[in-house]
Amino acid sequence: MNSPFLQLLVLAGIAIFLILRLRNVLGTREGYEKPVSRQAPDGGRRQAPFEVIEGGPDRDITDHVAEDSDAAKALAAMKRIEPSFGVADFIGGARSAYEWILMGFERGDLSELKPFLGSDVYESFAEVIESRNAQGLTVEAEFIGVREVQLVEAEISDDNLAEITVRFVGEMTSVVRDNAGDIIEGKQDEIKRQKDAWTFARQMGSDNPNWQLVATGE
After folding, report:
1. Dmax (CA) of the chain
2. Tens digits of per-residue pLDDT, 14-44?
3. How much is the pTM?
4. Residue 218 Cα distances to 58, 105, 151, 215, angstroms
5. Which of 51-60, 73-82, 185-194 has maximum average pLDDT?
6. How many CB atoms neighbour CB 71 within 10 A?
7. How far apart are the C-alpha atoms of 67 and 59, rounded to whole Å?
8. DSSP readout, 128-184?
9. What's the CATH code, domain 59-217?
10. Is residue 185 within 8 Å of 106, Cβ to Cβ?
């Protein structure tokens, strides 16, 4: 066996060895691979609702507000304070709260709602209900459903008080009866559209998980 041919075999063997070593160290990539999971800032005791690729947008936020908006920055701050907070989860809870609070107001029953209403909203609701009762009026209402839910604003103060405003478009039937039982407002089978903008507030990082309704509007 001549010397040049022997040198070629040696070089080929070295090349094969290096390729195998690189394959073992780097691995292979075939098709889609799941991103490497990262621990939450609290050591992994709680999982963030959505995994965020470092340097990329948080879809839990950008699915609801513009990426570079003030609302997005406020929501990101809320999630830094409480890694378990999720915008999508909040929207789902607000949707349920909208029906529950609205129907409680229509029925004139605020006893169960009081812990979830800010003082100004509670007093405003109570005044309307007291006025209806004084006139002998009753409301019969049926909630049909929510057509639209949109997060329109989010803020957080220096002391971590968060406020999120949500716009709702709901559908319901409602009639007002006098003390004789006659309908004086509305039609029983007429579905009307209800539009509201509600602001919910909560101290982020507190042990109390409940948000309070602190402002209402259209």
Report:
1. 118
2. 545 444 443 443 333 333 333 333 333 333 3
3. 0.72
4. 29, 16, 14, 10
5. 73-82
6. 19
7. 9
8. HHHHHHHTT-EEEEEEEEEEEEEEEEEEE-TT-EEEEEEEEEEEEEEEEE-TTS-EE
9. 3.10.450.240
10. no
